[in-house]
Write a structure and sequence with these properties.
122 residues; 1 helix
Length: 122
């Protein structure tokens, strides 16, 4: 009877040990499940933030395009304004150049005439 009692105690201890192992595995499984759930929530939050940031970036790119178009328009107007500001100076410069050329041609003609008259008189 003592042997049977030892066998039964051994089997009970083995069953208790197995139950403790199963219990620790279940506890670890629950903890891993919680960790997985927390990770899934974190990933979902990250994806939402990523989506929001992507939308903001898209909106900013649209605004950048609008700003670039406005800058092109402003630069075109700036070029026109510079052209209009420089026009009076260009007109004056052209008049001065025309007057200078005319005077040079008159002086050159006078000198040539004098040279030809002196050559012709001799």
């Amino acid at each position: 009877m003592n042997d049977e009692k030892d066998v039964v105690e051994y089997r009970l201890q083995a069953i208790e040990k197995t139950l403790e192992e199963v219990k620790s595995v279940l506890i670890e499984d629950r903890m891993q499940s919680r960790d997985i759930a927390e990770l899934q929530k974190t990933v979902a939050k990250f994806l939402n933030m990523y989506t929001e940031q992507a939308e903001k970036i898209s909106m900013l790119q649209e605004h950048k395009t609008d700003i670039d178009e406005l800058l092109e328009g402003l630069n075109a107007h700036d070029a026109r304004i510079r052209l209009l500001e420089e026009k009076p100076n260009k007109d004056k410069a052209e008049k001065f150049t025309a007057i200078t050329n005319t005077i040079f041609q008159i002086v050159l003609s006078a000198v040539m005439t004098m040279v030809l008259v002196k050559i012709g008189l001799k």
